[in-house]
Specification:
Blueprint lengths: L2 H9 L5 E4 L4 H10 L6 H12 L8 E6 L1 H4 L9 H7 L3 E5 L4 E4 L2 E7 L5 H10 L4 E8 L8 H20 L3 E8 L7 H22 L7 E4 L14 H13 L8 E4 L6 H14 L5 E6 L1 H11 L6 H19 L11
Parallel strand pairs: 1-2, 1-10, 2-3, 3-6, 6-7, 8-9, 9-10
Antiparallel strand pairs: 4-5
Helix pairs in contact: 7-8, 8-9, 9-10, 10-11, 10-12, 11-12
Bound molecules: 2-O-methyl-1,6-di-O-phosphono-D-mannitol.
């Protein structure tokens, strides 16, 4: 087993998952504003400190994705976030994309930026102790979109990111997200997810990356948020597995899901059903942001006296999702 494969094994060992604590400043500000927290460099540091100092977190979380601002910050005890995580046996990762911009002049489609200067930034992150990298691409379903051109351009960019990351010794996590916004059906989401993933793996093949040294981060197959379509967890699990079988090569060791704005408990129930149903060649897991840290953020509200309860909420969600990875989650456990 090479070093990248060993890193992947460590991140996902014993039912563990990935905490995506890598929201960019504009996204974090939006999340904070919703719960009445002022977004400053210091409040963002405090919240991330709360997350990574949660007692027992290492039982359920094997990797944390950091944002550039956070990986340069220190905890109250003077340690960097990477040092602290590594000391707990949790691998630090880093988001290396620089957000999105309109694709081809269209406000409706997006391409992710960040290839300029990427090799230099990756070199810095090696020194800062990161072990894996992540890059998110956004695919939106709507009238006449996504275009093949947009899917292809994002696939090519993701493949360049994977190649550059692996060249510096990082496990890469390409994250092409077909977002939930819109009134499309689950069938449409399945079709577009397949197209997006097939394009990604074609580009990765062309780049000649090591498929065994990456983790795919993808969306669950869901109906659009505004579609009104009611689907069962079983239908979601079947559609998601079908999409993956149609597009992800068997050499890929692991696939983790993003939560994409789903309510936290629902994301866990769906993850459980997917993991339970799947007789697939990949390890399946989770890399949630909102569905893991959302409840903790709502409880914390920027107040030190809420820290313990907020950390308990994070630990609970991490435990529930870890059980879901093994197909052992039950809704009754929410009240324990
Ligand atoms: C889709 O977003 C990723 C997973 O988060 P959810 O589980 O909440 O969907 C997440 O890692 C995302 O890539 C980061 O939060 C960075 O997003 P921005 O929009 O800040 O670049």
């Amino acid at each position: 087993m090479n070093e990248l494969q060993e890193t992947i094994k460590k991140i996902l060992a014993s039912g563990k998952g990935i905490l995506a604590a890598d929201a960019s400043t504009p996204t974090m500000t939006k999340r904070f504003e919703k719960v009445g927290i002022a977004s400053t460099e210091e409040t963002r540091r405090q919240f991330r400190q709360l997350l990574v100092t949660t007692p027992d977190l290492e039982k359920y979380i094997g990797g944390v994705i950091l944002f550039d601002e956070t990986i340069r910050q220190k905890l109250d005890n003077g340690k960097t976030f990477s040092e602290h995580l590594a000391g707990r046996g949790i691998l630090p990762g880093i988001k290396v994309d620089e957000g999105t911009e309109p694709f081809g002049g269209s406000e409706n489609e997006k391409i992710t930026k960040g290839l300029d200067g990427l090799a230099g930034r990756l070199g810095e992150y090696v020194v800062m102790g990161a072990k894996f990298t992540k890059w998110r691409a956004v695919i939106t379903i709507g009238k006449g979109i996504p275009t093949l051109e947009c899917i292809q351009a994002n696939a090519d960019t993701l493949a360049e990111f994977v190649f550059a990351s692996q060249a510096k010794g990082f496990v890469a996590i390409p994250e092409p997200e077909v977002v939930m916004d819109g009134n499309h059906t689950i069938k449409k989401c399945e079709e577009i997810t397949i197209e997006t993933l097939q394009a990604l793996f074609k580009s990765l093949k062309t780049q000649g990356v090591d498929l065994e040294g990456l983790i795919l981060k993808t969306n669950m197959v869901l109906p659009g948020k505004e579609s009104g379509q009611k689907v069962s967890v079983q239908e979601i699990a079947q559609a998601t597995i079908r999409a993956l079988r149609n597009s992800v090569p068997t050499e890929v060791p692991a696939i983790v899901f993003l939560s994409g704005g789903q309510e936290a408990v629902l994301a866990t129930e769906r993850l459980n059903e997917i993991c339970k149903a799947a007789d697939v060649p990949w390890e399946l897991g989770f890399s949630f942001e909102r569905a893991l840290e959302g409840p903790a953020m709502e409880i914390w509200k920027g107040k030190a006296e809420n820290t313990d309860v907020a950390q308990a909420a994070l630990l609970h969600r991490a435990k529930m999702n870890s059980l879901a990875r093994k197909g052992e989650y039950k809704k009754e456990l929410e009240n324990e």
